[in-house]
Write the structure tokens for this entry.
Amino acid sequence: MSPTTERAAAQRTSPVQRLEFARDGGYDVVLRRGLLEGNASLITEAIGSRRVAIITTPTVARYYGERLHRLLVAKDVSCSLTVLALQERTKTLASVAEVAARTRAAGIGRRDVLIALGGGVATDVVSVAGSLYRRGVAVIRLPTSLIGQVDAGIGLKSAVNANGVKSALGGFQPPEVVLSDPDWLCSLPPRALRAGMAEILKVALVLDVRLFDDLRAFGPSLIASRFAGPEDVIDAVLARSIELMLSELQSNPFEEDLARVVDFGHTFSPLLETASDHRFNHGEAVAIDIALSARIAARLGLLASCELDAILGLLRDLGLPATAPLVTAELLAHAADDAVAHRGGDLNLVLPSGIGASVFVRARAELTDALLRDVVAETVPSRSG
Ligand SMILES: NC(=O)c1ccc[n+]([C@@H]2O[C@H](COP(=O)([O-])OP(=O)(O)OC[C@H]3O[C@@H](n4cnc5c(N)ncnc54)[C@H](O)[C@@H]3O)[C@@H](O)[C@H]2O)c1
């Protein structure tokens, strides 16, 4: 290999990261360019001699699913391709049942494997289906969206919506392996890229000031170029986001501790997402939650006004919302009550305390109605802006 080719090859790989836990051992999260090039060896090695059903969505099938299917068939892998219109509104048990029916029709047995190829909705639905089908079948995740590669596709848990409640039914279903290709992000619509930036901002703001600075420096141009480059910046941002997420999960994989820093941005957002009838996507609802949490933190003296301005300015530069007409003090109080039920009786609201650090507000009583009313009132001028 010439030095130039060697350098190019080195740039196309990031270190494999791994989540270890006692039950089942753990799994690798691999970020690698060119996964579908050549004979897709990483994917075929992961499948081994098993029969495989690829489950994906129409757009992702057109860009990557059909190619993966052809590659696997050419390698004599016994493989089917199922394309289902999985969206937030159809992220339901009915879709889980549909995946199971197609999986059965594809002849998948107990020792075979599903490939979940797509965004966070697809990986969530297929992971839930995989955990139920024949009482559990292996799932390889190939996350194709930004949210998928830094968050939804890499963790242990997945869920579907039910009874009008976001992520109401689910569980812990570790994947066998996660294989992500940053090149796949280039076909993602800008709105989905922006949503993914909200999840990166989530970990940066409470865990890593350097990643926050990188987002300020490169975030808007990465979205404008639709993640076309520079590759070293993209790979570094993705790898760092994954590292932060996995290290948080590593210490608390099955959420025995219900106070989780990575729940930042996820106290008000589930209700915002459903109350908007999913007009806000997941990342947009998280962005509004981040802005509200930052405003609460500033009012409690945890953030300086210049830090609050930096956070709100970054949200704006990333094209993400910071509030919406449906945000009322009553809605926020209701969301906080839901969070208490979800978090075993404590609020565990994560607030930034400076950039790159956080504290928990444990007791629901500390989040007073007056505080929520003040925070909502503060957002009113920006609503008309
Ligand atoms: N399980 C978890 O821990 C977890 C964590 C975060 C988010 N989530 C869930 O993830 C979902 C959001 O994920 P999302 O933003 O990926 O949404 P999504 O799955 O709806 O994908 C967004 C859109 O992008 C398309 N798409 C995906 N990859 C593409 C690509 N490479 N090129 C072109 N189009 C592509 C999809 O078809 C879809 O239309 C929410 O349901 C959220 O609850 C789950």
